[in-house]
């Protein structure tokens, strides 16, 4: 068992015991132990397919991306409010378009699709064949911004392996 899994097992046991507060109920202790073992087993299986090292590298770059995404959410939220409050000046022009993506990993593709959906006014509808996303946007400008590729580039940088 790797040190990561040992740390996870011990951490989950301590966390469960501290949060549950049931130290004398045998049934709850057995169920808690079973849930901790199940989570550790699932983590072991996940680590075999997706090694922790690449995810750890991504986690170091995640705060910077999260801050950038937060600012994008605020900017697009302002745009959506303009469309709602001033429909004559900022008309809603719904658009459904295929947007390219350059991510190679499942995690990168998931982060990109979820980032699009988190941004007000855009929703990822589905993943298309050939590395494309079907996206619905409240306005044509939303599609133009996505096709410009700033978000795609940032997520791709997030997932890249640097030595």
UniProtKB/TrEMBL annotation:
It is found in: Cell membrane. It holds the Pfam family MNHE. The chain crosses the membrane at residues 7-23, 29-46. Its main location: membrane. The keyword Nucleus does not apply. It is a multi-pass membrane protein. GO terms for molecular function: monoatomic cation transmembrane transporter activity. Keywords: Cell membrane, Membrane, Transmembrane, Transmembrane helix. GO terms for cellular component: plasma membrane. Belongs to the CPA3 antiporters (TC 2.A.63) subunit E family. This is Cation transporter. It comes from uncultured Thiotrichaceae bacterium.
């Amino acid at each position: 068992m790797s040190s990561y899994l040992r740390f996870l097992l011990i951490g989950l046991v301590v966390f469960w015991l501290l949060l549950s507060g049931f130290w004398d109920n045998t049934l709850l202790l057995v169920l808690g132990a079973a849930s901790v073992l199940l989570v550790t087993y699932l983590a072991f299986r996940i680590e075999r397919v997706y090694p922790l090292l690449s995810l750890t590298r991504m986690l170091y770059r995640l705060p910077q991306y999260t801050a950038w995404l937060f600012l994008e959410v605020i900017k697009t939220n302002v745009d959506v409010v303009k469309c709602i409050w001033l429909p004559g000046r900022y008309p809603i022009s719904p658009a459904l378009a295929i947007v390219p993506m350059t991510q190679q990993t499942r995690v990168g593709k998931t982060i990109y699709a979820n980032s699009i959906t988190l941004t007000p006014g855009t929703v990822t509808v589905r993943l298309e064949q050939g590395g494309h996303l079907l996206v619905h946007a409240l306005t044509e400008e939303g599609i133009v911004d996505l096709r410009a590729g700033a978000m795609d580039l940032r997520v791709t940088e997030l997932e890249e392996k640097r030595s």
